[in-house]
Prior knowledge:
The protein is α+β, with helices and mostly antiparallel strands. It has a domain at 1-48: Ribbon (Pemi-like Protein 1, Chain: D), CATH 2.10.260.10. The chain has helices spanning 16-22, 63-82, and strands at residues 29-35, 38-44. A two-stranded antiparallel ribbon has the order 1-2.
Amino acid sequence: MIIAKVGRRGQITIPREVRRWLNIREGDRVTFIRRNGEVILQPLTKTLFDLRGSVPVSAPQDFTAIRQQVVKAHAHEVVKDEA
């Protein structure tokens, strides 16, 4: 078991051994996933830009409308989780 201390601003230092396990380096991004009462720390190795062009589309896309739809759906999920 590896333990880290939470600082007064809610920050933690990821212990060296864990950074090595996950191959995390300075400047890398990580995500915290809440699942079944646990929190999973996962390195973000790809961005949406890495996936660009991986899905064929038949027509131009209205990204503003898509973004608004996603924000609305996410807000609904957050409110549901808070209830």
